[in-house]
Design goal:
alpha+beta, seven-stranded antiparallel beta sheet, five-stranded antiparallel beta sheet, 31% helix
Length: 245
C-alpha cells in the first residue's frame, strides 16, 4: 500500500493518507511534550517503543471484543489504522489519585479510588484541555448522550482488561487517557494509542515515589532515565504477551 500525503501532524504522531481512503498510516515520533506543549523535548526511541506497545495492546483488546482502529504495523514505528473522525474528547480513567485529580481535589497522591473514575476533557490545547461536565459536553455538541454512554461502558471495559494486563507485567495502572473516533459506518472505535505517553504506570515492586514511575511523568517531572523506563515497559509488555500466547 503506497503512502500519499501528510494528512495531520500532532505532538506524538504524523498521519499520512494511503491509496485506500479508509486506511491511514500513523508514524510515531520521538518528540515529547508536556503541559499542553509548554514543555518540549525528545525521548530517544519513544516512537518505536510506543508504536510496538500500542500495537500489542490494541491486538489484545481486539481479542477481548473491543473494536479499535488498529490494522497492522508495517514498521516498528508505524501503524496502519482505520480512518476515523476523532471525537474532540480526552477520556481519562482513574484508579488511583495522581496528577490533576490531586491538584484539583486535595486527595493525597496514591489514594486508591473506591471505583474507577471516568472523566471527559475537551481536546483543545488553546483552552488547556478543560474538564467537562456532561451538560457542557452536550451543550457544545461534542458527542451524543448515546455516544457518551457507550464511551463510558467501553472505557470501563478497557480499564478492567488493562489493569489485569499491567498487573501481569508487575505494573500498577494508576490512570490513562483514551480517544475514540467514528469510522465511515459511524461505528465507535478506540483510536490514538495506549503507551507510557498516555498511561500513568508505577512499578508495583518499587516503594519509592520517584523510582516507581515508568511513564511520561519521568519527562514531565525531570526524574531522568526516561528512555530506560520506556524500554523496561516494552520488555515487560512483550514478555506478558508471549506468555499469554
Amino acid at each position: 500500500m503506497s503512502v500519499n500525503s501528510k494528512l495531520y501532524e500532532g505532538k506524538a504522531k504524523i498521519l499520512y493518507t494511503t491509496d485506500d481512503p479508509e486506511v491511514l498510516l500513523a508514524d510515531f515520533k520521538d518528540d515529547a511534550t508536556a503541559f499542553n506543549a509548554q514543555k518540549r523535548g525528545s525521548i530517544q526511541g519513544k516512537g518505536k517503543i510506543n508504536c510496538i506497545i500500542s500495537s500489542q495492546l490494541f491486538q489484545q483488546l481486539e481479542a477481548h471484543g473491543i473494536k479499535t482502529h488498529f490494522i497492522d504495523s508495517p514498521a516498528p514505528n508505524q501503524m496502519r489504522v482505520r480512518a476515523v473522525k476523532i471525537l474532540p474528547l480526552e477520556v481519562v480513567v482513574r484508579n488511583i489519585a495522581a496528577g490533576s485529580l490531586c491538584q484539583q481535589t486535595g486527595l493525597p497522591l496514591g489514594t486508591v479510588l473506591k471505583q474507577p473514575l471516568v472523566e471527559f476533557y475537551y481536546k483543545n490545547d488553546q483552552l488547556g484541555d478543560p474538564l467537562l461536565t456532561r451538560d457542557r459536553l452536550y451543550l457544545m455538541e461534542l458527542a451524543t448522550p448515546e455516544q457518551v454512554d457507550a464511551i463510558i461502558h467501553l472505557a470501563l471495559q478497557i480499564n478492567e482488561f488493562l489493569r489485569d494486563f499491567w498487573q501481569r507485567c508487575g505494573i500498577t495502572l494508576v490512570d490513562f487517557k483514551l480517544e475514540f473516533g467514528l469510522d465511515s459506518q459511524q461505528q465507535l472505535l478506540l483510536a490514538d494509542e495506549i503507551s507510557p505517553d498516555t498511561c500513568r504506570l508505577w512499578d508495583t515492586a518499587e516503594g519509592d515515589s520517584k523510582r516507581r514511575v515508568m511513564d511520561k511523568d519521568r519527562f514531565r517531572r525531570d526524574l531522568g532515565n526516561v528512555e530506560n523506563a520506556y524500554q523496561e515497559v516494552l520488555q515487560r509488555v512483550l514478555k506478558a504477551v508471549e506468555s499469554n500466547n
